[in-house]
Amino acid sequence: MSGTNAASGAAPCRFAHYFVICGIDTETGLEPDELAALYQWLEADRQGRDPDTAATGENFEQSPLKRTFKSKVLAHYPENVEWNPFDQDAVNMLCMPKGLSFRTQADSREPQFHSFLITREDGSRTYGFVHTFYEEVTSPQICSAMQTLYQMHQAENPSSATPSSSSSSSSSMDSLASSLDEADSPSSSSCRSAACGGYDASRDTLYVSKALCLITPMPFMHACRRFLSQVHRAVTASLPPPLPLESYVHNILYEVPLPPPGRSLKFHGVYEPIVCQRPGPGELPLADFPLGQTFPLLGVENLVQLFNCTLLEMQILLYSQDYQRLMTVAEGITTLLFPFQWQHVYVPILPASLLHFLDAPVPYLMGLQSKEGTDRSKLELPQEANLCFVDIDNHCIELPEDFPQFPNKPELIQELSEVLLRYGISPVGGAPPTSVPTSTTTLGSVSVSTRHTGLKSQQALRELEDDGRNGNLGGEQLAVLELLQGNATLERLQALAKRTGVRVEALRGVGGEGEAQGGRTAVDEEELRNAKLNVQLREVFASRFTMMFADYEAFVIQSAPDLESWLTNREQMHNFDKASFLSDQPEPYLPFLSHFIETQMFATFIDNKIMSQWEEKEPLLRVFDGRIDKARLYNVRAPSLRSSNYQRCTILKESAQAIEQRLLKIDHTAIHPHLLDMKIGQGKYEQGFFPKLQSDVLSVGPTNNNRWSNRTATAQRRKDRHRQQTEHLTLDNDLKEKYMQEARSLGKNLRQPKLSDLSPAVIAQTNWKFVEGLLKECRMKTKRMLVEKMGREAVELGHGEANITGLEENTLIASLCDLLERIWSHGLQVKQGKSALWSHLLHYQAREETLEQQQAESPVSNGPERRKSESSLGMPSLRESVIQDMRHIQSMGEIKTDVGRARAWIRLSLEKKLLSQHLKRLLSRQALTKKLYKRYAFLRCEEEKEQFLFHLLSLNTVDYFCFTSVFTTIMIPYRAVIIPIKKLSNAMTTSNPWVCVSGELGDSGVRQITKNVLEITFDCQNLGKLTTVQLGHDNSGLLAKWLVDCVMVRNEITGHTYKFPCGRWLGKGVDDGSLERVLIGELASPNADEDCGRGCRTPDMQHSPGQTRRASITSMGGRGYKPTSAQIQEAIGEAVNSICKHFHKPEKERGSLTILLCGEVGLVGALELFFHNGFKSARLFQKTVFVWDFVEKAVAYMESADQMGDMQETAEPLGLTCVSLCHYVSAINSSPRNIGKDGKFQLLVCLGARDRLLIQWLPLLVECPVIQRMYEESALLRDRTTVNDLIAVLQTLHDFPITLEASLVKGIDL
């Protein structure tokens, strides 16, 4: 144990934690890969076959050389590290994801390199770097076992001698064979032994794969790669290395520290020094995976789209033959997220045994290995509605439907392309910077200049390789050796020349070209170039976020007094003022930002910001805040002056220089490898075989505690403790456990699937976690939608903003659609189509339509619930069913895909307040659900399903127009019904009525209604929310007078019914003589007999004045209620205030101005109250006097006075005002419309408000002598102070551009 403790003491600051060797265990022999067996069991289960009859790992149809055999961790040093416990199963699986592979002397045996990472439960990462090579099998038992397997294979498959059969196996496990299995050229594959892929122990030499791995706390990819490559070279060289291999392994494990931040470090490999550097505190964090390979693999445009999908936390699946490509793209894309971090499942290399994880109904970023020639269309993925599929080898990506684009995308692509071109890299996908054969393209770019360096000859190479003097070569030979040692490409060319017998002449000038400036090798130069390119590309992305979130701190809500209370109330708190933040952003950025600020990575970023007031800042946040502060110093900009202009990154040069200076001027040099106190004679050197290392010397660190280990271990321990506190993911603390369980952190505890235990029971447990997570996410989403939508009541309860913006609402609904797709994709038996929800609906439709035909006369069992009994409102009931809504969606030619149809159906159901009921109906067909879903699926967990439907039912308490407002160009059937007051008027009329319906998106045009039918159905393009109805008739016949109670209009798809109250006569010689009225609508309340969920709703919209208000305004003294002066003035103030608020909202969210002008509490109604106060409206000879009569008499007086010259002496402006009033009144009177006297007054007020003339007309009416005859002394209109106050209030409307609906001003010629 003492060894372990000594090893662990300085572990956190050590360069490497473990050195691992994986390969074949000669004692246990050839074992079929259990993971392959488990995978076949899972595959059979997924495809609906009996899993127990599936293969158990041995597949006799495959050649034994193509099968997967169990690899083992043969040794790892040290035994354990306190800070990073060794996970043997995970390391073994990721070092050799496809198990052991065998080769013969006829096969390609090029060494390969790949990386992996393991994410621990607290979210911290450990990196692994693996060098895989082939070692000759010396065990006679294994050779004879392979011979036996091959003979059995031949007996089972006599035709297997043909080349095609050995490569025709398409088992999914085999698809995880590395690209090097298929990388052989046609010539080499055709020249395999007689059986082509066969094995004969008497003739063939058998080789098996072995992996050397370094496990490190930080991703120093290039340094680890070079170290492992040198260790392997020492094994294959003809002479033993200068020191035993234990010395080099011990050195890198215990004597090489991590470079301090902002410093570079040189340590020594077997043959040459290795340099690595670490960014300083103010720089972007370490990222050693070459973006110079990631960009050309995909192309700049594809990569920006992939970056966008990652920011929006979609499901991302990378697909490539090459493990290192998967890792390079995954790490590349996550490093570009700075200052944000990916918070969900992250598995860059997904072993075959974990393919069931693709079923995860959470965002993920995973890498899947493909087999050469595999058709993408045959790859069955559980869910694709929200999937971004990245085919790395074919340089293309498949994107989800309908997601917002990253702001300034074209300019960003342009800037990135320019950076790449400066380094000679094409910004177009498919042109990777190859400087080596394709099988090793991604093993790291090597300087292109070395490609053209000739080789001396095979003889010269052999001399160098076999030279016994080892370092005592003279002149040119020494230069060649140094170049070869420093150049991975030439090493591979050497091996290739040796294997194929090619002779290449003339290796001239090698030393000169290989040596770069200052004695640096070409590999050093290449690493420097990669590091500079990496940092410049990352800076371009980082500067975008610095610009976009420059003022984010102003919108962070710091509400808790201390950390404990913040953690306790975490779920209920609003951390970020999203509405204000969005209102401060440029319009083009809003679609992206409204989605992005809902993501887990943004929420975590804000959480870290809030916690930084009590704890040390999280490193990424510290760097980001520092950059924002620096930008403010140079560029003082008011937040309100936001611009969407693209600003280029200005620090590209400095960032590259910082790295260059560190790599050229080494800050620290580690202790050189040295002889250890070892037993003599152990680990004897044998060329081509990796020796058995002495574990006793490698399990213990150096006895003299170095100063750096002591100092940095303490600092690191403090820092690690701090990190664990900061992330609040330590499981022993109740508060932190609660924080973890928060819905937003869904996926955090599943960030990395556990690789160690993969029994079906563990898989079931994982799926159970997903079910719980989905339910929690549903609860949080519905709660958020309700709180945002509830308006004023929610604000009074302390729940945030009063008005949800249309943009935010759309984002939340899109997020709900995504959640439903993920729920419906979980546990599918067999995937059909890209949308699991729509696929389920289609199955349901097929079953129900046959039943529907049989029950055409009587409605389905739940008919009473599904029919609106609105007969009291004069509307025939509207049948509502899942199938009916599906048919509406299927008839919409605008929607082309299943995902689009599913989303439209969700929006329609939500708008109709039927989403929960529809889904309950869909899931009530249990036989169908069982047929489509596995036992562990969310939809088959009864209790969770019931809670889920209940959460969705809560959305019925608010009104959504998410279907109407999105599908604006579709044709919609409308039904209009006119309801007369039969007691007081003729039940029949001889005139010909007509109606024109207007909404926020347009009007229907005049529609004639058949006489005495009083009902019409018509199709027209979506009118949006309905605002007004023009109702009229031609006054023909004897029974032309008509008292109308209201007009009802219904959207036959959404079921929204609008009531347009009237309560007035239409006809000559009755009421105000109107033959046409403009009515203002309200959304009709559902009937009380409907379920309470449907009954609760947001407050009614304003509507046109009904009988009640008219009576109160025009009734005589004793009848009805007369408003007081104070009430009238308050009503005017409220009406003007509402109009001001309307114009202060974003344009897309304003709603109808007509309602604010002419509705029940609108400006017109309030001014009518003002004009009616003290009005002498007693009936003279049974004739009612209207306010319009006063206006007409006043205008007549002005015109006569003007003609007699009485007004010549008035001031010029007053004269012009007088002319304008006369002109407007004359135009209204001469209009062909018969809108009645009250309608004319309404029109005058609206036109006066629009043209800013109301406050000029009021003094004229007040000064006119007619007022004394028609108004009492106490009337408000005769009180100068009150009129001046009114003018001052109306003056505020001059700031706004009032536009009037066409239905109001039709036929007016000014």
Please state the structural category. Answer: alpha+beta
In percent terms, what proportion of residues is strand?
Answer: 5-15%
Straight-line distance between termini: 99 Å
What proportion of the residues is helical, as a percent range?
40-55%
- What's the tally of helices? 49
Residue ranges: pLDDT <50 for 5 or more in a row? Answer: 1-9, 161-196, 432-484, 501-517, 705-715, 724-751, 792-804, 860-866, 868-872, 1088-1103, 1106-1119
Description of the molecule:
The chain has 1310 residues and is of the alpha+beta class. Helix content is 42%, strand content 11%. It contains 49 helices and 24 strands. A hairpin with a 5-residue loop joins strand 21 and strand 22. Helix 10 crosses helix 11 and helix 13 (409-422) runs antiparallel to helix 18 (522-548). The longest helix has 30 residues, at 760-789. The protein is elongated, with a radius of gyration of 40 Å. It starts with a helix and ends in a 5-residue tail after the last helix.
What order do the helices and strands come in, and which of them pair?
Layout lengths: L1 H8 L8 E6 L10 H13 L25 E6 L10 H8 L6 E3 L7 E8 L5 E12 L3 H17 L6 H6 L10 H4 L3 H5 L15 E11 L4 H16 L8 H11 L8 E5 L4 E5 L13 H8 L1 H12 L3 E6 L2 H13 L9 E3 L16 E6 L17 E5 L4 E3 L10 H14 L35 H9 L8 H12 L1 H13 L9 H5 L7 H27 L14 H6 L9 H6 L6 H7 L3 H12 L7 H16 L17 H13 L3 E2 L25 H4 L8 H21 L6 H8 L18 H30 L2 H5 L9 H20 L10 H19 L8 H4 L15 H9 L7 H14 L3 H10 L1 H7 L9 H12 L17 E10 L12 E7 L2 E2 L3 E2 L6 E7 L4 E8 L8 E10 L5 E10 L9 E5 L1 E2 L8 H4 L11 H8 L10 H20 L8 H6 L4 H10 L14 H18 L7 H18 L6 H15 L3 H10 L2 H5 L9 H12 L10 H4 L5
Parallel strand pairs: 7-14, 9-11, 9-12, 10-11
Antiparallel strand pairs: 1-2, 1-6, 3-6, 4-5, 5-6, 7-8, 12-13, 15-19, 15-21, 16-17, 16-18, 16-20, 20-23, 21-22, 22-24
Helix pairs in contact: 10-11, 13-18, 15-16, 18-24, 21-30, 28-30, 28-37, 30-34, 33-34, 35-37, 40-42, 42-45, 43-44, 43-45, 44-45, 46-48
